[in-house]
Fold this sequence. Notes:
Blueprint: H1 9-14, H2 17-21, H3 25-35, H4 41-50, H5 53-56, H6 61-64, E1 74-76, E2 83-88, E3 91-99, H7 101-106, H8 108-124, E4 129-139, H9 145-165, E5 169-176, E6 185-195, E7 210-215, H10 225-228, H11 248-262, E8 267-272, H12 277-289, E9 292-296, H13 309-314, E10 320-325, H14 330-339, E11 344-351, E12 355-360, E13 363-369, H15 370-373, H16 388-394, H17 406-414, H18 423-426, E14 437-439, E15 446-449, E16 456-462, H19 465-470, H20 472-489, E17 493-502, H21 509-529, E18 533-539, E19 543-544, E20 547-548, E21 552-561, E22 578-582, H22 593-599, H23 611-626, E23 630-635, H24 640-647, E24 656-660, H25 665-670, E25 677-681, H26 686-692, E26 696-703, E27 707-711, E28 716-721, H27 722-736
Helix pairs in contact: 8-9, 8-11, 9-11, 11-14, 20-21, 20-23, 21-23
Amino acid sequence: MKTITYPTASQIEKAKIYREMGLTDEEFAVVKEWMGRQPNYTETGIFSVMWSEHCSYKTSKPLLKRFPTKGAQVLQGPGEGAGVVDIGDNQAVVFKIESHNHPSAVEPFEAAATGVGGIIRDVFSMGAKPIVSLNSLRFGKLDSDHSRYLLKEVVRGIAHYGNTIEVPTVGGEVQFDTCYEGNPLVNAMVVGLIDHDGIKKGVAKGVGNLVLYAGGSTGRDGIHGATFASGDLAEDTNNSSAVAIGDPALEKRLIDACLEAAKSDVLVGMQDMGAAGLTSSASEMASKAGTGIEMNLDLVPQREENMTAYELMLSESQERMLLIVEKGREKEIMHIFAKYDVPAAIIGEVIEEKVLRVKQHGSIQADIPVDALAEDAPVYQLPSKEAIYYQSFQTMAQTVPAVRDYSETLQKLLQQPTIASKKWIYDQFETGSDGNTLVGPGSDAAVVKIDNQKKAIAITTDCNSRYIYLDPKNGGKIAVAEAARNIVASGAKPLAITDNLNYGNPTNPEIFWQMEESVDGISEACQALGTPVVSGNVSLYNQSNDRAIFPTPIIGMVGIFESLDHITPNHFQEAGDLVYLVGTTKAAFGGSELQYLLEGSYSGKAPEIDLNEEKQMQQELLTAIKKGIIVSAHDLSEGGLAVALAESLFTDRQLGVEAVLSGDMTTALFSESQSRFLVTVKAENKADAEALLSNAVQIGRVTDSERLVVENDEKVVLDEAVAVLQDRWENAIHNALK
């Protein structure tokens, strides 16, 4: 193979080659200050990936500081591979969400697969056993060939990786809007389990300790993947070389080997080689520990011949971990990896000098201060300007759409892909391979039992980006509140969140304003509901052909059941049970499914939310659940009460419902006003339920008629066969994909 010749240091500066790597003129000047000289090609590449938005969070870091991150339940907040939250009995859950958006637009199968693999590594890098995964996906409308292709390939990729490594996919959510046509969102969340004393961190402590490379060999796949993810997608639509290829079978062995190694006192620190590969893991681990790392790249397992230092340091080949092990005892760890047939090699050592020093073929290829790459990467406060559309939306009167046929409207809503059953998707996932999945996909929240314990956790992902587009701050509050409603409706107490902040180009002042406002809304809701942010990810420049996605900060939330007896279904259970609407219904149609169904766009004000009212209602409902008063609970979201009534009947129990509503029927049936639940109670518990739920009204009862019947004061406005509605809802996505 021909030897690669890179430009010299002076050529890099003179021809401004650093710009092609993603560095600005001003940033390159700072690089020279740090180095005290012109950087060579490998060093310039290292700075470019570490100072990319994807790795440094250089425009979002000021906003992330606004999040509440502390709480009695928080054992580890942001800054490590994943957040850690106490669940009692010396146990903790470890969780994080991450994105693989740009790669999924280019190579949807491989990118979705490796997205799952990457977030799993973040979790077991903490010493935790991954127990379940979830996802949050966004695509364009399904009348587009391209959107159908992306959906099929992304789901296939998630299933391929998750099913192979036997980490069940237990939940998630999917929404469809035209703004995601060219830039899909693929966010993956993983939850792990650990004992308090087993928590590991990604630190390179102990001068003289050894640097161990474990996992797959390094190839030329994924080079500059972090840079690719830090620019507008339209500029890189054919950049498939930035997408790495995964090997889930190797990852499964790697999990077992790393978890066994984590139990040994020989292991000092461990981190995934994620974005920017060897570069990020080595520099970040050293910077956090106040040390340096020296590596010999000749010792790195290589999949291809004649790889340069530049390629080895920037490769994002998958299934790789970097470990720091105690010097003199490295054979103990090497034996563990050999036992699981996982390649491993000692490639360097921890040094006192706070630099990342890279050697190859007997010469130094890079010598960079680690803090320059990690802690002291540039941070920008970008200009912010209120979006022009926002004020026009705020001045719009709150109107009620004209609905002529309630039956036809309900059937159409149930077939909207965002509302319709996602069974076609989750049927491809292994959802309960370990036997601990008590409630799987299709519910408000997944419920997973903890091994050998009489307790369980609830997990959900949520975000209505239409609301956030209309009103970023209010929409940010709603995203957290709705996630918490999902957890509470299942019978669990919300504990903490992880977030994936997906936005367009932050250098657009209106986009940065969306970021600021929604982060403030999320922060307020987290404070009010007692759910601190313990981990997360930022994904910017999500736009194509100059069109940005809706601001989409996905909320992943975990809650705890004090008792398995508190697990609450979200479907009606028995004929004769009383049906209650909890919360106040107002005319709220801005950003609603009904608005989009009738108008094909979103406008006006987003629904209002009062966080004090939200907190009170969640607490009251959870108290009623714990007292055994509540038979079923379901939060009201897209499509309003009519959709919630229908969804509550979509089981094999052959039930129906009779409800009597008052006031304007369009508002009563389809409004998306916030802080509402649909619950059922036994007739004998009527008085207790009404005493515990301060804002609840009985609207009907469950029947055995297998019909959904709604009356107002004068007449029947809906009388539908449940089987017909369920067929429309259950087969909508399958039919759209034919």
